């Protein structure tokens, strides 16, 4: 079953003014939709980042795909290595390229979707079957403005103190049934953010809580926060930059430290293990090299006594489906996964299969990923991408437009 | 596609009097053939150890299999956990049970074979496709007697010195084309075994050489051997017992140390990594929990800078097919695999697809594992099992019958 052609469609979807340590979300978030067509008439779907260098890499790889057997993931890896753009995007973490993992993942998911559709089997079955029928996700709270500068207010309203964060949580838990809560932090002073966590603990007794300042804090500040939040957090996510910094905090903190920033590739695992820097890894198939490698990462974490959760960027329904399938097929998933889903008001897939009940998504049983492209919506979001003028995610510039002195450099506190 | 019934067939096949550190092979080696039948008329094949506790565990698990979907490997894991016999077999290494991994693996291979046959795809495709079309194996040399006590001479003749080992290697390389050579050691004095390796190096210039005394040597003896064989070995396998002992040798040896004895389960990996005890892991899907976990182990080894090769016990064609598929689908396979294949004169599969050319086996492209049961041969080897009286592998007792003072305790030198 061979690939005939690939369609790469960058899209932009409306995103609220969510705040984080480096700035504020732009009015539109970018993604790319990958459609892999085969000679059998089956189309496999993938979704990944929409930044211009990624789109260029995807297009380069897409041109090499015709003729590839959809079962030949090893062949996909060889094509990725041949893709000149594979070396173009550099990680801010260590200057090394993650592009190969990103490109491989986008197409691996699409090929697995095509395999599943051809075989009449959900992707979870191609990954070894389901360890759970429902995948739990967490409520993802953000400090936010009421509106993008010059734009209309969204219906969530502003959230710049503990009270409004609790209100945001109440709405999100009521609508989705989430049984775990994460607060994106690094926005206000650490003391205020700790107050928000304590307010959430009072409002939601027994619900696991997490805070993620995206390395906005120094080591001493991180240790101070860990003391303030002792007994309250299930984990403390990326308080400070680097494996050595995380290890220094981990040695003092009573709760496990989680990361999707200091361990983002295989070569970070040996030093992180040796330094006991990380208690929970937030996996993400988009940059860990696809669904099968995410499972392998779960096995590795289990071997080394590291918990496993799942990281999220702003995403659409294809990614949610892929996350749900791999989470169901990964036995060592020890925490509810992150998702930006509630912040999204537009999608490229038909609504239906991916509903939240009691904070969980039921694993689709339809062939492949179990989602169907809404072609009108895809066309609309592609037009939106064309007219948005946004080609790269950049949280710093829109913040600087409001606060000209803003640098976005970390740690801030 | 659901399992209707499972047939478990213990078999015994003739085995030469091969010597090792604990004794001598019995006249028959034991294996078990697993046939998983489905409602669709497809049968999946597996092969594993034939020791009585394993056969009992396989039968116990077999009774729980009807109704399982052949794609539900997660469900297989749950069934294994329910199998009371899963806790019955204890490892001599650490007293912990490996039975769960062994039982899971036997059926995982059979379910993957059934999946592949149902889908019209070779197992390698279900594992992500092939990184190589031919899987290299190594010549496996043994010191040996000319015959089992009271039995007829086999056509290999005796091998109890360097000259006869070189002759054995020449025949095996001529017949199979092997491009790597392993000597099972721990039989003669270490000095004599080093002489055999030097003789092999002279006879086969450029061919990678390995020696495996199965922990017959003390740490000082191992270090002494590593000095004698510096520049000659590609790796030194299990010279001495335990992770700490291996680490002490590894710190002094110039060649990497390999193991299939001190790291045989996930919980051994963290201490082995921390102590830098092992440079090469000899994986074995039969006790590492199946083909998919063997791939995951390869990923883990790659992450931690550990080479990967493959261990072999005396086996038949189903196991050779499974080894070949997983080796082809595991990118980080850095050495030729072990196999006892040349010592085998009987099999349960039809000859044909698994031929050695230039020391390698071409990965079968037929659906599933690509091997077919020879029903007459299976019945004959099962009858042989019934009449052999052998129910557990035991190399010590037959050696003690010849040398009453023999204990088999290690290290010997």
Supply the number of helical segments of chain A.
13
Provide the residue-averaged pLDDT of chain A: 95
Rg of Cα set of chain A: 20 Å
Oligomeric state of this protein = homodimer
Proportion of beta-strand residues of chain A: 15-25%
Which two chains touch over the largest interface?
A-B, 34 and 34 residues
Instruction: State the total count of DSSP E strands of chain A.
Output: 15
Structural class of chain A: alpha/beta
Anisotropy-based shape of chain A: globular
Helical proportion of chain A, percent range? 25-40%
Q: Any overview of this molecule?
A:
The structure is a homodimer. With about 425 residues, chain A is of the alpha/beta class. Helix content of chain A is about 35%, strand content about 15%. Chain A contains 13 helices and 15 strands. The first copy, chain A, has helices spanning about 50-65, 75-80, 100-120, 125, 160-175, 190-205, 220-230, 245-250, 270-275, 290-305, 315-330, 375-390, 395-400; strands at about 5-15, 20, 25, 30-40, 45-50, 135, 140, 180-185, 210, 235, 255-260, 280-285, 305-310, 355, 360. Chain A has a seven-stranded parallel beta sheet with strand order 7-8-9-10-11-12-13, covered by helices on one side. The first copy, chain A, has a three-stranded antiparallel beta sheet with strand order 1-4-5. Chain A has a three-stranded antiparallel beta sheet with strand order 6-15-14, with helices on one face. In chain A, strand 7, helix 5 (about 160-175) and strand 8 (about 180-185) form a beta-alpha-beta unit. In chain A, helix 1 (about 50-65) packs across helix 3. Chain A is globular and about 60 Å long. The model of chain A is unreliable at about 90-95 (pLDDT under 50). The interface of A and B includes residues 69, 125 and 293 of A.
């Amino acid at each position: 079953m061979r690939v005939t052609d690939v369609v790469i469609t960058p899209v932009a979807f409306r995103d609220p003014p969510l705040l984080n340590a480096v700035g504020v979300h732009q009015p539109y978030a970018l993604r790319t939709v990958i459609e892999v067509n085969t000679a059998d008439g089956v189309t496999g779907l993938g979704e990944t980042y929409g930044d211009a260098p990624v789109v260029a890499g995807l297009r380069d790889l897409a041109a090499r795909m015709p003729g590839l057997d959809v079962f030949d993931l090893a062949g996909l890896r060889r094509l990725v290595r041949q893709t000149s753009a594979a070396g173009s995007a550099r990680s801010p973490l260590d200057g090394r390229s993650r592009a190969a993992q990103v490109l491989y993942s986008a197409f691996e998911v699409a090929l697995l979707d095509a395999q599943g559709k051809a075989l009449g089997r959900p992707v979870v079955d191609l990954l070894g079957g389901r360890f759970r029928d429902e995948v739990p996700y967490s409520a993802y709270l953000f400090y936010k403005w009421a509106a993008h500068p010059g734009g209309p207010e969204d219906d969530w309203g502003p959230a710049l103190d503990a009270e409004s964060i609790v209100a945001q949580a109440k709405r999100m838990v009521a609508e989705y049934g989430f049984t775990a809560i994460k607060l994106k932090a690094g926005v206000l002073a650490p003391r205020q953010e700790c107050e928000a966590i304590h307010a959430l603990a009072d409002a939601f007794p027994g619900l696991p809580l997490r805070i993620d300042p995206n390395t906005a804090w120094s080591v001493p500040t991180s240790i101070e926060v860990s003391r303030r939040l002792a007994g309250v957090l299930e984990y403390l996510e990326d308080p400070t930059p680097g494996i050595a910094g995380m290890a220094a905090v981990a040695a003092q903190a009573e709760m496990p430290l989680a990361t999707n920033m200091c361990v983002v590739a295989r070569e970070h695992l040996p030093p992180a293990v040796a330094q006991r820097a990380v208690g929970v890894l937030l996996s993400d198939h988009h940059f860990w090299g696809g669904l099968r490698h995410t499972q392998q990462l779960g096995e590795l974490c289990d071997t080394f006594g590291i918990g496993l959760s799942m990281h999220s960027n702003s995403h659409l329904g294809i990614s949610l489906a892929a996350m749900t399938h791999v989470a169901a097929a990964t036995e060592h998933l020890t925490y509810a996964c992150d998702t930006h889903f509630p912040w999204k008001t537009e999608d490229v897939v038909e609504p239906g299969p991916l509903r939240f009940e009691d904070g969980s998504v039921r694993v689709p049983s339809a062939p492949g990923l179990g989602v169907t492209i809404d072609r009108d919506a895809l066309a609309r979001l592609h037009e939106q991408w064309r007219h948005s003028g946004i080609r790269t995610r950049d949280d710093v510039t829109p913040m600087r437009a409001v606060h000209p002195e803003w640098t976005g450099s970390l740690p801030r506190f």
